[in-house]
Design a protein that fits this description.
The complex is a heterotrimer of chains A (315), B (290) and C (407). Chain A is mainly α and 315 residues long. Chain A has helices spanning 2-20, 24-49, 58-75, 79-103, 108-128, 155-177, 179-189, 191-196, 201-227, 232-236, 238-251, 258-276, 283-298, 302-314, and strands spanning 138-139, 229-230. Chain B is mostly helical and 290 residues long. The chains are: A mainly alpha (315), B mainly alpha (290), C alpha/beta (407).
Chain lengths: 315, 290, 407
């Protein structure tokens, strides 16, 4: 219950933000943090709760982005309608990758590597196929109406990403206390024991990857709308896959707030390092990398791990 | 486009290219086989090694092949230190943390190179940069041919080492059964560090063979990471012979695939193989079933 | 290398720690008479895979800012100095957008940047939301100026203009030599600029009487060009047309030399290294004879030569990244001068009506239609005797093109 209240309070507070803050910079910061949180939440479902680490979440992200962008560019479909379609496409790719990988019993690093390979295959295909614009990418035509999922100000985008992240939170919260979630974490903790206890391991994992992929694809569609341009590198490149996993690991795997904590901490770190050492190229990123390593060294259970000490009594 | 006059040089070219890949993969497969680390920093470390070879040549006039006796031990020392004092300490043994540490390391190394040595692409000029060796009508670049034999030699050395020496045996023990190795008194931390060191030493050698035909800049490692992983998986994680053979196979696939499907789409052959191996024979060609 | 401006920005949110707002320039002791500095965002990918070009861009822009200030700043605004607000796009569009947001908060009057087309698409859009005038330094994709954004101004040409000029000039060169060349092979990098250029080439060359034997796309980065060169050997095109970035270009021509592939010409369109002094210096044998249709300065303009000397004295390479940015800043300064205001709308208007001829590019006075400078054009260059010379169009030519090339 406490978690649910916290989620709703947090989202409520963010929803009120545009009323008090007019700084485009701050709003952009919040939007990008929520966007990173969304990607992290999606990854967390499969990895944190399900124990299956994916290095290729870009495969789902890019599919969502391209599905939405291509429909708009080639068929002129309304951007809002593209969103559910993008989610469905992402889920389908998730199902395919999951079905193949889990059917053949891939676990651990093997699973991670195969997802990486799938993302790369999609990237290469996107580079060669007319439908995705090939190397040129897709530029979503500028419209200035909220009916077209493009907003003049930032508030509109903030609300959309907030709704998506809220969905992610609720999903994570549900995983923490539902039977399905229990099966999933059982599979994570010990797949063979779970199977012995009667859990349909294949089905559970497949459902997790589909959920994860769907949510990631939503993030991809959002990205396409916010930046209005995607190309194979932006959509399917390793940068996205890395972004999806950094937040949850730093923030705390398998927790509801881990992805948010991690995303916020990393973004803050990025801004700080860039501002303190902005002008000499490379220095800020070196510091970022060093802090990342330090975070891992001193917070091996992530930031949420810190809170678990204090939260335990109240729960 | 697949007449023999094109196909044959392409295959030869693929073999020599694959040899370079194999040199890079040799280190990675050892690191994975023993430490079970997917070393994302491998590309950045290759870049550091390449800069090492470059500066030895630019400032001291050392020929890249003559730099082998310097680069190999230097990279070994770097690897040992990295594992012992950074990666081992930071990750507390957890897989996801190791991942982050290697990612952080990549950021640090790439941006350090950017800061210290600027973003310019550097190349070296040697007397043999443009020379070719004629093999049955095909003209294969000399540095590549040397790399081919270098890879064979390196693999042979590593195989001999891992089977005949005490350390090699210790490494194999730790790779197979970490707890058991500890129980019989093997200093596992030391073995980890030695393995990482040897893995990087291979990179040092790879850099010596690669630079004459290529170039170096802070981002250069990125182009090799995925290919190295593919080869490690194909050959079998932890198998040197596998890395060599895998390197050749991937090199030829890339080459011939490029001929057939075009350079851009041809890359797909590599990853399709990657996926197929993972699905149908995850232990790779020479790996042992887990 | 000139005075470094520390980045100056404002943070409004309570939760974030504020970094100190730093230095104004000029003499702090002199009160009153000094007008407030005019902030100009200088946004480029100075880290990440575009770092090399991005850093040259920033260098060029900074050079111009320093010069303008040293010459007395914006005269119509009581000598107000320009203050560069530096931004790093980290070779990613989303970071570019974030930097634009920061620059907006910092109160920039205009932005110059962001080199790569993909990043420019994002930053111009972000700037448009705040009506910040955005001078695009390079960003050759045509979409950059085809979106109807009122704030976007591109000083140099887009790849449609560049490709058309390239094809026309190729035809001229070929005709001058009595048309020995009939067949062409295009080798391009796989992303926006390479693919766009190659598509245009492939569609227009046949109309001029050239047979396109093959269009080869390659990845970024490409580790090995032997296959592509093998195909070249087999197809034996008269002319090879590369359109790619520096590293791949160098590898390609090196491999061609190694394999003894000698077409009548290597005729690049936006060739990554072809008109780079660095390339010519490091690989004189390979570079000799290479032709490129690319951004270039007017070789007959003394200012261009003077700047080249100044840049080389500072141990930098004189590339288009440097002088396009240098002149973009001057273009902006001219607009601010005429607008006599640091207000964004005023500067946008001034740019839109700009007829600036204080530059040394072969463009004529500026004239922006839908954000594109109409006179902008590339020049055709050839590496001859260890130097890069303009060979076409005749108005700017320093030498006659040597074609076919006999190695």
């Amino acid at each position: 219950m406490k978690t649910l209240c916290a989620i709703l309070l947090l989202c409520g507070a963010v929803a009120l933000l545009p009323a008090f803050v007019s700084s485009g910079f701050v709003l952009n910061l919040v939007i990008m943090t929520l966007y990173a949180t969304l990607l992290g939440q999606a990854w967390n479902i499969l990895a944190g709760f399900g124990g299956q680490y994916s290095f290729g979440h870009a495969a789902f992200f890019g599919t969502g982005a391209y599905a939405s962008a291509a429909l708009q560019v080639h068929l002129g479909v309304n951007a809002w309608l593209c969103l559910p379609f993008a989610i469905a496409c992402g889920a389908a790719v998730g199902a395919l990758v999951g079905a193949l990988s889990f059917r053949y019993g891939l676990r651990g690093s093997y699973f991670a590597l195969v997802t990486l390979a799938f993302a790369e295959v999609l990237r290469i295909l996107a580079n060669s196929v007319k439908f995705t614009g090939g190397g040129v990418g897709l530029l979503i035509p500028l419209k200035s109406s909220s009916l077209d999922f493009q907003f003049q100000g930032k508030a509109g985008f903030l609300y959309v990403i907030l709704v998506l992240t809220l969905a992610g939170f609720l999903l994570s919260w549900w995983l923490e206390r539902s039977r399905y979630g229990a099966w999933l974490t059982a599979v994570r903790d010990n797949e063979d024991s779970a199977a012995a206890l009667g859990v349909n391991v294949f089905r559970v994992k497949l459902q997790a990857i589909v959920l994860s992929a769907a949510l990631t694809a939503a993030g991809g569609a959002f990205y396409a709308q916010y930046f209005q341009y995607i190309d194979p590198h932006l959509a399917y490149g390793p940068a996205v896959s890395v972004e999806a996993l950094l937040g949850p690991i730093v923030g705390g795997l398998g927790t509801v707030f881990g992805p948010l904590l991690g995303a916020a901490a990393l973004r803050l770190l990025g801004e700080l390092t860039r501002n303190l050492m902005g002008d000499a190229p490379g220095v800020s990123l070196m510091i970022y990398g060093a802090v990342l390593i330090a975070m891992v060294t001193f917070l091996p259970r992530g930031i949420a791990g810190l809170f678990r000490h204090f939260g335990r009594r109240a729960a | 486009m697949l007449e023999l006059s094109i196909l044959f040089p392409s295959i030869l070219n693929g073999l020599t290219l694959g040899a370079v890949y194999a040199l890079i993969a040799l280190g990675l497969t050892l690191i994975y086989g023993v430490l079970h680390i997917i070393n994302f920093a491998h590309g950045a470390l290759l870049m550091i090694a390449l800069y090492g070879v470059f500066f030895l040549n630019a400032k001291l006039g050392v020929d890249p092949y003559a730099a082998l006796p310097v680069m190999v031990p230097a990279m070994f020392a770097l690897g040992y230190a990295l594992q012992r004092f950074v990666i081992g300490r930071a990750s507390h043994g957890k897989d996801e943390n190791i991942l982050l540490v290697t990612l952080g390391l990549t950021l640090i190394l790439e941006n350090f190179a950017l800061f210290a040595w600027r973003s310019d692409t550097r190349t070296i000029e040697t007397s043999y940069t443009f020379s070719t060796v004629a093999i049955a009508g095909a003209m294969i670049s000399t540095p590549k041919v040397v790399a081919f034999f270098g890879a064979l030699a390196a693999t042979a050395i590593l195989l001999a080492f891992i089977t005949r020496t005490d350390l090699g045996r210790a490494i194999r023990a730790v790779a197979r059964e970490r707890q058991g190795a500890k129980l019989v008194g093997i200093d596992v931390e030391h073995v980890f560090a030695m393995s990482f060191g040897i893995g990087l030493a291979c990179l040092g050698a790879a850099a010596c063979f690669l630079l004459p035909a290529y170039y170096v800049n802070p981002q250069v490692g990125n182009g090799f990471v995925l290919i190295a992983f593919t080869i490690v998986v194909l050959g079998g994680m932890g198998s040197f012979a596998g890395a060599l053979l895998g390197g050749f196979i991937i090199g030829v696939v890339e080459s011939v695939g490029g001929l057939w499907l075009g350079e851009s789409l041809g890359q797909i052959g590599i990853f399709v193989i990657f996926i197929a191996v993972l699905l149908f024979r995850p232990q790779g060609i020479f790996g042992a079933r887990a | 290398m000139g005075i470094h401006r520390r980045r100056n920005f404002l943070k409004q949110s309570a939760g974030l720690s504020a970094a100190a707002a730093t230095g104004t320039l000029g003499f702090p002791g002199l009160a009153g008479a000094q007008a407030a500095p005019i902030k100009v965002g200088v946004l480029h990918p100075v880290t990440g895979f575009l770092a090399y070009s991005g850093q040259l861009c920033r260098f060029g822009a900074q050079l111009a800012v320093d010069e303008i200030n040293a010459a007395g700043g914006i005269k119509s605004m009581r000598g107000a100095k320009l203050e560069a607000v530096l931004g790093d796009a980290q070779s990613k569009p989303e970071v570019g957008v974030s930097e634009v947001e920061k620059m907006n908060e910092a109160g920039v009057s205009a932005i110059v940047g962001s080199y790569a087309s993909a990043i420019c698409l994002a930053t111009t859009q972000a700037a448009a939301k705040y009506d910040i005038p955005h001078v695009v330094d390079v960003g050759v994709a045509d979409q950059v100026v085809e979106r109807g954004l009122k704030n976007t101004f591109r000083f140099g040409p887009g790849y449609k203009v560049i490709t058309e000029a390239a094809i026309n000039d190729l035809h001229i060169i070929n005709t001058l030599a009595r048309k020995p060349a009939r067949t062409v092979m295009i080798v391009h990098e796989e992303s926006l600029f390479g693919t766009g250029t190659a598509n245009l080439l492939a569609s227009q060359l046949p109309g001029m009487g050239y047979q396109v034997l093959e269009v080869v796309k390659h990845a970024n980065p490409t580790r090995d060009f032997n296959n592509i060169v093998l195909r070249m050997k087999a197809l034996n095109p008269d002319i090879v047309i590369p359109a790619n970035y520096y590293n791949e270009y160098v590898l390609l021509v090196r491999t061609m030399k190694q394999q003894n592939v000698r077409p009548m010409a290597i005729y690049s369109v936006l060739g990554g290294a072809a008109s780079s002094f660095k390339f010519v210096k490091e690989f004189p044998d390979v570079a000799d004879g290479v032709i490129d249709c690319n951004h270039w300065y007017n070789p007959k303009d003394k200012r261009a030569i003077a700047l080249r000397r100044k840049v080389e004295k500072l141990n930098q390479v004189y590339t288009y990244e440097v002088y396009l940015n240098y002149q973009s800043v001057y273009l902006l300064a001219d607009a601010i001068e005429r607008a006599a205001s640091a207000k964004r709308e005023a500067i946008v208007e001034a740019l839109a009506s700009s007829t600036w001829s204080g530059h040394f590019m072969p463009y004529g006075p500026t004239r922006f239609v839908n954000g594109q400078n109409q006179g902008a054009q590339p020049l055709v260059l050839q590496v001859l005797k260890g130097d890069i010379r303009v060979v076409l169009p005749n108005t700017y030519a320093e030498a006659q093109p040597v074609f076919p090339w006999k190695a």
